[in-house]
Queue: 2 jobs
Job 1
Amino acid sequence: MSEKDIIESLKPICICMGIRKGTFLKHLKNGIDTLEELRKATGAGAGSCGGKRCTPRIEELLREYALKNSGSR
Ligand code: FES
């Protein structure tokens, strides 16, 4: 993992629950690739904002991940 990847993986996604990007990436690599499943697996969306802040970030992450992998399949 490059330094850039490490910094990237430390980016907060769900602020209420303190869940970072790396946690989501781990689940994405394991094939968990829907918003609902990711929320269930990580606990994101269960914080005080009810997912208002993290849901758009998770959706962006899903798009980013799909795009990154569309070329390599
Ligand atoms: S930021 Fe995820 S529940 Fe609030």
Job 2
Amino acid sequence: MTNPQIKKYDICIIGAGLAGLAATMFAANQGLSCAQVGHTGEINFSSGHLDLLGVHPVGEKKVLTDPWAGIDALVQAIPDHPYAKLSKEEIRTAFRELLSFLKATGLTYHRRMNHNSTALTSLGTTRQTYCVPHTMWKGVAALKKKPPCLILDIRGLKGFSARQITTALQRDWPNLLTARISFPGMDHLNEVYMEHMANALILKENREKFAQEVRPHIKDSQIVGMPAILGLYRTQEVVSDLEKLIGVPIFEIPTIPPSVPGLRLKEAFERGLRAKGVQYFSQTRVLSVRGNGERDFEIDIGRKMTEDTVQARGIILASGRFIGGGLYADRQRIKETIFDLPVHQPGSRAEWHRREMLDPRGHAVNRAGVEIDDAFRPLSSSRRPAFKALFAAGSILAHNDWKRMKCGAGLAIASAFGAVKSFMNICR
Ligand SMILES: Cc1cc2nc3c(=O)[nH]c(=O)nc-3n(C[C@H](O)[C@H](O)[C@H](O)COP(=O)(O)OP(=O)(O)OC[C@H]3O[C@@H](n4cnc5c(N)ncnc54)[C@H](O)[C@@H]3O)c2cc1C
């Protein structure tokens, strides 16, 4: 007998990293009722850039300006890469839908449709990325045109040095100035935190005091770069108001994790998804799942003990890798932690890593993960879908090395789109 107390959903998404959040958004946009379970994923660490494909082949460290041509070459070279399960038009549709969802929540991204953009890092190096937050976009243009520019850092902010950034850039960008300012109201602190400053700048009176600190340092600078602290939300308002107060355009530079742009992404998703009626089981985990996928799955959720049980017609597994907790490595092998799905991995632990840590070809362990069919369904040991209605998305998937390929967000977004599309197909 079914228990009438147990809530039923069309789909349960396991994981609240970028892949899980994107999957929930795609599913909610299809009108599905969604339950989402999981702690915050790696999204809090993200620079805020959304990469599609920045490097291929990784062994040659070949940096790509055209990520779409790069995807053609990648799927030829690595036919099991998750990108090979989708057409480029589907990947474009996934990005379009995701960016318009984020824009509707107030988080605007910019991109050059067919090309990567060159963006600054917190070290003063540059990287190729596909989508850049509104708050950083003027920095992309400045990096190209190199106008006289002031780079600011903030007294007490660890891991962000204007001088380090300008030292790295000055050979190609001669007109760079640096300055260190105190953040108003925090000048007595030995250490200041990005989230606190981002929160403070939401208030107009704090922006006025901040602008007063900045203005004396501008001199001939035509633009000002600063750490990513321009509001936890309402960033467009914060940026345009500060630009008026300071008198020149401004742009953010990513900081070390945990980052404000990552927090913004998470908050934007949560706001937008709540408005779509998604049920969150946040700061909890899926403890066990029953069902063979022919009927509803029954899913136990809690911290250590079951606190809720829900039913769902389908599941999207977006539980990440080792940090997220979707994969676990013991001394012998790598395991998938919820369904004990087979994990593609080297034959023995001795083969997990190459001899040199920085070997550009990467390490086999980084391509370990769950293998899927063309419908994003994890495979059992007999190479058949483990369950009819279990799908997987994100960094848990085998055959990607997103850190080296610079495809973290793209992999999460595209595979989430593919998983939801396949679930919709079996519902028809
Ligand atoms: C330092 C850092 C910087 C990055 N910078 C960028 C960048 O600049 N550009 C870019 O494109 N990408 C970047 N990324 C990568 C990107 O943000 C994503 O982390 C990556 O794509 C993986 O996302 P994911 O959702 O697959 O996994 P994760 O983010 O690891 O999320 C996994 C989720 O699964 C949940 N989970 C695990 N087990 C369970 C369970 N039993 N029950 C319920 N939930 C469970 C976890 O709680 C978590 O919510 C960066 C990542 C890091 C770590």
